[in-house]
Amino acid sequence: MSTVPNPCRICVFCGSSSGSDPAYLDAALDLGRRIAAAGMGLVYGGASIGLMGAVADAVLAGGAEVIGVIPSVLKDREIAHSGLAQLHFVETMHERKALMAHYADAFVALPGGFGTLDEFFEILTWAQLKIHAKPCLLVNTQGYYDGLLRFLDHAVEAGFLKQDNRLLVQVAADPRQAIEIARQLFEQRPQEQRPAPDAALNQLVR
After folding, report:
1. How many CB atoms lie within 10 A of CB 126?
2. 192, pLDDT greater than 70
3. Which of 1, 6, 16 is nearest to 46 (CA)?
4. Alpha-carbon distance 120 to 110, whole Å?
5. Which helix or strand (DSSP H or E) is residue 51 part of?
6. Number of Cβ atoms within 10 Å of the Cβ of 141
7. Domains annotated on the chain, with CATH
8. Pick from 191, 196, 176: which is nearest to 2 by CA?
């Protein structure tokens, strides 16, 4: 697998459980392996459990960079990943999302629950508001997000979501396609236009 010319980081949102279908865990492990093989780094929520832990472990096993960001209150629940060289503890969930966005060049959501949807949709809202222009992808493992995608189309039809903003959600059938889409978008941008920490995201952290 070819690597990107300059390493970029993929922020992964996903469940803190493994789900009921083994395909979800398989996809998380596959995504982690592909991130590392592509010469990319991982930014994620810092946990050691569920799909979150699986992605991080796979990236670490591939020798790539992993940055975790987790609220301090969760440290005492012993779910923070102890094997990370970079693990940031923050005070609020909002600060967690903003710091992950600060480090990331693209966002990928695997299957997950309320937390995953909250993170992904806030990032989409920031893209809609032109706070960032970083790719936002759903990995639709086993059709997990089919219902959500139908809802978004319904929101367009109902007049609550503009078609241009609906197109901010890119869909990959599997981790291979997700990494390929992210890499293509990253490589297509001139160096000076590639995502980087910026003042707008820095303000959100404060």
Report:
1. 21
2. no
3. 16
4. 10
5. helix 50-61
6. 24
7. 21-199 (3.40.50.450)
8. 176
Q: What does the pLDDT look like over 96-139, one tens digit per residue?
A: 999 999 999 999 999 999 999 999 999 999 999 999 999 999 99
- Contact present, 101 and 119 (Cβ < 8 Å): no
> Distance (Å, rounded) from C-alpha 16 to C-alpha 25?
11
Angle between helices 114-128 and 93-103 (to 10 degrees): 60
* Burial tier of 188 (Cβ tally within 10 Å: 0-12, 13-18, 19+): exposed
Instruction: Residue 138: name the closest of 102, 163, 111 by CA.
Output: 111
Read off the pTM: 0.89
Task: Report the distance separating Cα 194 and Cα 158, nearest Å.
Answer: 34
For the record, the structure tokens of 74 come out as 């969760």
